[in-house]
Amino acid sequence: MNKRVPLTGNDAGAEALKDVNPDVAAVFPITPQTELMHQFASYVHDGVVDTELILVESEHSAQSACFGAASAGARTVTATSSQGLLLMAEICAITAATRLPVVMPVVNRAISAPVNIGCDHSDSMFLRDAGWIQLYCENSQEVYDTVVQAFRIGEHKDVLLPVMVCLDGFIISHTMEGVELIGPEAARQFVGEYDAAFRLLDTAKPITVGPLHLTDYYFECKRQVVEAMATARRVIVEVGKEYGRLTGREYALFEPYRLDDAEVAIIALGSTCGTAKVAADRAREKGLRAGVLKLRSFRPFPGEEIAEALRHVGAVAVLDRSISYGLPGGPLFHEVRSFANGGAVLVSYVYGLGGRDITPSDLQCVFAELAARRQSGESDGVFRYIGLRES
Amino acid sequence: MAINLKEMSARPELLVGGHRSCAGCAAPAILRQALHVAGPDTVVGFATGCMEVSTTIYPYTAWRVPYIHCAFENCAATVSGVEAAYRVLQRKGRIPADKKINFIAFGGDGASYDIGFQSLSGAMERGHRMLYVCYDNNAYMNTGTQRSSATPRGAMTNTSPNGSIISGKQQSRKDLTACVLAHNIPYVAQASVSNPIDFMRKVARALEIDGPSFINILQPCHRGWGCKPEDSIELARLAVETRWWPLYEVDHGRWKVNNKPKTVVPVVDWFRIQARFKHMVAGDRDGILAWHQEQVDKAWTELLEKEEKSQ
């Protein structure tokens, strides 16, 4: 029986990093990520892990130091939120295209302006095309489990991509719940010794990292990242299954909840999936067959599998906790819709920006609206907001 | 630490020929000299810039030591990561305990004085065992000569042209060497590509130190300065002889002026042979030439005082 302890999402992230014992961690504070690295730094200072901390002067330097450490052959981590992620964005793209499997918990927070510290997904969505794998967590347990798995996924020799483990700021990062831990021995065995493909520190075999690619080679480098992302779809599933055999908690690209016979469904990312599950249960009590598709892997995006899972559903709400100016609806909506092949009415709901609360009642209303559309076949006015004052 | 030229001359080149820097560029000499001292157990980090683009055009590389480039403004932070990895991997027994690796970060003045100033400051403050070498050619040369905070007052660049209303750069230079010194790190020096023995001795001293060190080396760019390619080294020599670019070092708080020119060359003689100062030499309506001479004389006196006081 594994240990079950009460942890916040930030604690769970720190616990996973502690159990893996990475070589290098670059650390810079930002709300709401700060406590994750407080906790991890205390493990370093108490000698629980032998990670080298680099207490950098900005997130830009955090990601730059990660780039250097990972190139050197070290298993490398950092963590951030919001403005910090945007500040390091330039280097995030370089880390990915250089194929360095850095692991980074991203504690999702709104981006300025106006300045706001509440949860939404605008920060990680800003980086959606940076070449990072993005896995979203519903709760603290998933944070712990996903951070441990992230090393195996990113470091897989056919993947070699950095991984963001996204957890909702405050909603997950600062609320406590019971988390089952596998402990350092099992975690270290699961991730294995890190064997980097190339090591800058091997001076007997000098390598050049980060050379200039002109028109003759640049395009092919980008194509290889596309290939790695495609492979990651398989590897995420394989690693999730293996983790399931170890812990009884299996992970995949997404999790269907009461979806088999659903007439209406919600697809969402992060903690809202838990709220949606409660709303679906309540809707079913009232006779509406409601289901949820909890998307875990936003990058790579399992579009075909999502379309297949929703094929029989009459009306689907796609929930976005971020916004895309100049194009109605959020990024998740458009990506789901790009794979939909007729059938279901798809409705975009943008919600919860800047930490605005989303409740089971809100989502019961969404289910009710979906049911009405399913009946009427109404496909106008599909770009909607939840909980927004319009006047 | 003494350097042995005979021994160094027998060692293989670690930055090989075939790279694509301009004819007459003095920067590769700086890199070769640093590597002659440092040897093959050295990791070189590079900021985006002339030397980065000209030495690593894929699938070629001129480097026979491990080399890493990430972006323009983060060379010091990148090398921080490499050095931290070295420390932990050695502690974990994955690098032999007796294997010493040198870490040298290079950046131009744009990458060091301006966009990478924060990254440089952070790395120096954190105490990484790293030598940071700024090759200062007084402007953004890789992008075609734009003013930086290292550009001398009055100098003409493509973003501070000699216009009919505003003539050249309006502001005075930042003293980066002094800024880095203010981090209270063990070793800071100023060098010139015209004085290779002095520079190589400084590299050797810097690499002995178990902590951060910094060398700011002047590197004339004939494209940006407007002089003949074959005069690059001569331009650097004159910068030293005018005392516009004094050679000195501060080793654990002790100042030493490494070159005290016997015959002092007026600054205008150095300005006269560079097209970037042509407008000032032709008609110095703002009195910038006299201002430069005053600044140089004042700074030199202060430098000698610091040397004397710190003995």
Describe it:
Chain A has 391 residues and is of the alpha/beta class. Chain A is built from 13 helices and 16 strands. Chain A has helices at residues 9-20, 34-45, 59-72, 82-87, 89-97, 122-126, 140-155, 183-191, 218-247, 272-285, 303-309, 331-339, 360-376; strands spanning 3-7, 24-27, 52-55, 76-78, 103-108, 133-136, 163-168, 177-181, 208-209, 254-257, 264-268, 290-295, 297-299, 315-320, 345-351, 383-386. Chain A has a 6-stranded mixed beta sheet with strand order 10-12-11-14-15-16, with helices on both faces. In chain A, α3 packs parallel to α5 (89-97) and α10 (272-285) crosses α13 (360-376). Chain A is globular. The model of chain A has no long low-confidence stretch (mean pLDDT 96). With 311 residues, chain B is an alpha/beta fold. Helices cover 39% and strands 13% of the residues of chain B. The longest helix of chain B has 22 residues, at 288-309. Chain A binds chain B through residues 23-24, 26, 50-52, 54-58, 60-61, 64-74, 76, 90-91, 94, 200-203, 206-214, 217, and chain B through 40-43, 45, 52-53, 56-59, 61, 63-71, 73-74, 77-89, 91-92, 94-95, 101, 118-119, 121-122, 125-126.
